[in-house]
Design brief:
This protein has 21 helices and 8 strands. It is an alpha/beta fold.
Length: 444
């Protein structure tokens, strides 16, 4: 996420390294590089100009004191300005005091609009809500079918009607929601490849008919400023309450995230971080600012872990580790949980300072690295998984053949697992233990 922007900002801010003070000369030089980095990331020209000017003014008006270096101080100022540019804090959904809350979702075709509707519905159900999905893209039957398939997948009802206009379907869905106690109505509207008069007229009529609590526009983050300008056009017509950025896991340059608030005047409320229905997160400006500057995002990592990990299982696992009863079955369960949290590269990138190590690493880091480890464990018998000590020479040969690995690779994995067991037990018992890279080496 934002690798290109992060790398260029890092180079720009390094110009303060070794400097004794922040001066007009070194600030001017660094800010030129920052401006280029922002424009290369497809940030709106005016937003980039205002950002650089704000950082420059704050930097020149700040005195370097104590042990803080000019480089550290300028990073702090840039971090604060990034937060300010993106809205400072998370903007939450509004809910109607009189159910149902209606959420109108607009966007161009291919932006991930329909998938977002399903993601949002599942996310809200986890919070105790009872959502209803509404298929109002009557011009593209495939969109209705897609929404129904997603609804079946997440077990959330989809309201649709044949031979009715989009406005009629939207209006009737409200009555349906009230009748069947659905407190959230998420309306998926028609998408087009470009803005056209028919599309804009229809979505405005739907909005006027149902008077939505929230009107969200879905932007494809990979097309940068173009998506932001489209959002602005929709806002002038619909009075948006928020924006959703999708495909942030792709090769996005960051321009959309940094431009939306200043250009459209409305906050980013959610981001899509993958294709799965669980790949949705609230937009936190502070966390995104930290990631852009290579400072990690521990809070999001913890939230993902809490979302995927069962608390009761976690307590049971801790007890097993303390009693040295951690088995390969436990290990396999944890691998599967980690995979649900996202790509390994993304998760490691959320750890402070790890982005730089990832860039310098010669080892490709992705979820395919799990395949070899899983194959070895799955080639073991139930008894071997429960009690690794019984795995003798002949068993190792059988496991190697069954998993498509060499005996040496199996031996290496077993040794690393044994080392990991010892370390985990020490940590669980509160003992100090030097960090070991055994776990990390398993995936190389």
């Amino acid at each position: 996420m934002f690798e290109n922007l992060q790398e260029k900002l890092e180079v720009a801010l390094k110009k303060f390294r070794g400097q004794a003070n922040i001066t007009e000369e070194n600030t001017e030089e660094a800010m030129k590089a920052v401006r280029r980095a922002l424009l290369d990331a497809d940030v709106n020209f005016q937003v980039a100009k205002d950002f650089v000017e704000a950082v420059k003014q704050k930097a020149l008006g700040t005195e370097v004191k104590g042990k803080i270096t000019p480089e550290q101080l300028i990073v702090k100022i840039v971090h604060e300005e990034l937060k300010e540019t993106m809205g400072n804090k998370n903007s939450e959904l509004m809910f109607s005091p009189q159910p149902p809350t209606t959420i109108l979702v607009a966007g161009l075709q291919g932006s991930g609009k329909t998938t977002f509707c399903a993601k949002l519905a599942k996310n809200l159900r986890k919070k105790g809500r009872q959502p209803l999905l509404v298929a109002c893209d009557v011009h593209r039957p495939a969109a209705i079918l897609q929404l129904k398939q997603l609804g079946d997948q997440i077990k959330i009802p989809v309201f649709s009607e044949e031979n009715k206009s989009a406005v009629e379907i939207a209006e009737n869905s409200i009555a349906y929601a009230k009748k069947f106690a659905r407190d959230i109505v998420i309306v998926d509207t028609a998408g087009r490849l470009t803005i056209d008069e028919e599309m804009m007229r229809e979505v405005k009529e739907i909005s006027e008919a149902i008077k939505p609590t929230e009107t969200l526009f879905v932007c494809d983050a990979m097309i940068g400023q173009d998506s932001v300008n489209t959002a602005k056009a929709f806002h002038e017509l619909l009075s948006l309450t928020g924006v959703v950025l999708t495909k942030l896991d792709g090769d996005t340059r960051g321009g959309a995230a940094l431009s939306v608030l200043k250009v459209v005047g409305k906050p980013i409320k959610f981001v899509g971080t993958g294709e799965k229905v669980d790949d949705i997160e609230p937009f936190h400006p502070e966390r995104i600012a930290s990631r852009i500057l290579g400072m990690g995002d521990i809070l999001t990592l913890v939230e993902r872990a809490e979302r995927e990990m069962d608390e009761k299982k976690a307590i049971e696992l801790e007890e097993k580790i303390k009693k040295n009863q951690y088995t390969f079955d436990d290990f396999l369960d944890q691998l599967r949980t980690i995979k649900k949290m996202g790509s390994i590269k993304e998760l490691i990138g959320m750890l402070p300072g790890m982005d730089k190590h990832l860039k310098n690493s010669q080892v490709p880091i992705d979820n395919s690295a799990f395949v070899k480890v899983e194959a070895i464990v799955q080639s073991m018998t139930k008894a071997e998984r429960s009690n690794p000590k019984i795995i003798n020479g002949s068993r190792r040969q059988r496991i190697a053949r069954g998993s498509g690995n060499s005996i040496q690779e199996v031996n290496k994995f077993l040794k690393q697992f044994e080392d990991m067991q010892k370390i985990m037990k020490s940590v669980a018992l509160g003992k100090k233990h030097p960090f070991s890279s055994s776990f990390q080496r398993m995936f190389k």
